[in-house]
Specification:
38 residues; mainly alpha; flat
Length: 38
């Protein structure tokens, strides 16, 4: 949900830090799942 919120312009520094801690495969999976959300 946070990736969708970021696309809408919402910012959460803690979530940004969390996402930066993901490895490439985890980031790819998160983006794929976010793309399925409305």
């Amino acid at each position: 949900w946070y990736i969708v919120a970021r696309r809408a312009g919402l910012i959460d520094p803690q979530m940004d830090d969390f996402l930066q801690g993901l490895d490439d495969d985890q980031t790819k999976q998160a983006l794929q799942k976010a793309n399925r959300l409305p």
